């Protein structure tokens, strides 16, 4: 595939690396942090979901036809990823072709840089409509790895980032402040960018689920309203304010 790899652009410094040749572009790359990796970001607040949120999704049928993938295939992988988060997941999901919060978009073309190819991209909590994009490179992996990729992207949907605190990154110009919550353990589903950690060890852990569940319970009970003076902002999905047919 040398003809494909020639003249590929360099990945933006904000791109996260899934091992040597797999990339994640959902989150902004910064500094090493905890499994939750919560940071206020440039908007000055930490976005999370309100209690009892249901995210409604639909499929881009044209993308399924062009990518030669099926709804059944994608839902099988997605449901397995949701099941791995279990009762730690702060939201529920339901299919709705009319009133929806995000759309599955399965691309037929790869999205590659010199450093590797993007597998998938998702979104963070807010009141807008979004795309959950899956690229063909994800299907180059084994099924357990495909599910793991979606588990990671769901972490972003739940509000988790993969910051790297107290880590000098020359490309980004030094030490950025991050807001930390949870166990400081490099073995986590959200820490794929730690090149000192074996990629096989970056998996969903009990600490990941415990910290996420504990964090949301504190927020929903109003026992936690900020982290290091960075305010926490709760969001309802787009569908919550949309008229139902």
From TrEMBL:
Gene Ontology molecular function: metalloendopeptidase activity; zinc ion binding
Residue span, Peptidase metallopeptidase domain: 45-201
SMART domains with a match to the protein in the record: ZnMc
One GO cellular component term noted in the UniProt record for this chain: extracellular matrix
Keywords of this entry: Hydrolase, Metal-binding, Protease, Zinc
Gene Ontology terms: biological process: proteolysis
InterPro entries membership: MetalloPept_cat_dom_sf, Pept_M10_metallopeptidase, Peptidase_Metallo
Keyword Protease belongs to the record: yes
Protein's name according to its UniProt entry: Peptidase metallopeptidase domain-containing protein
Organism: Linnemannia schmuckeri
